[in-house]
Known about the structure:
Elements (H helix, E strand, L loop, with lengths): L2 H29 L1 E5 L1 H7 L1 E8 L8 H4 L1 E11 L4 E11 L1 H13 L4 E12 L3 H5 L6 E3 L9 E7 L4 E6 L2 E8 L1 H15 L1
Antiparallel strand pairs: 1-2, 1-9, 2-3, 3-4, 4-5, 5-6, 5-7, 7-8, 8-9
Amino acid sequence: MSSAVVAVIILVLIIIVIFVAVRLAALEECLTGVWVGSPDYLKTSGLSKFYLYLAPSDIEFMWMLRGVDRPGYLVMVKDDGTIICNQFIRLRYGAAAQVWSAARALLAKKHLYIVSGARLEFTDGDAMTSLAGEGDGTTDIGDDGPLPADINISYDTVHGAMSLYDDSGVFGYLYKDGWLSSTAEDEYAQLEE
């Protein structure tokens, strides 16, 4: 094989990697914000409220090697007013599966972005330091939590909808609330200053 062919193949691979990385960073940004349980899901699940806030992740070039670590907040309330969860959380997931998901979505011209094998943890400590990512204590949600500790997330880029699920079923169907997301992002930015 001539060196020109090898150079072209390497160049094409570099362009593909850059394109997928840029696309994935944009999709990661879309996940940031306040997600609200859909009315139909709330009705069938016996919940009156389901809010999930996902803070911005620090996307850098090296995130592909180390994965993503997002602070957040989860609120779940039953129809009778019983609070199931009102807790800071941390969502962690590896990057390799997300790169494959973004590449697959681009190649198949699909609008579904899947975060597989995410780890959901309760965050201990002070609320401000936990949300700003400075708290280091986390506890696995485990079997007693309102959601499974190991969870998959699918994000539909066309409808702006998110599903939380695992092999045993769906644990949430949510839509992004633009106004709440904007307000939360402003407050989060003030925390980081």
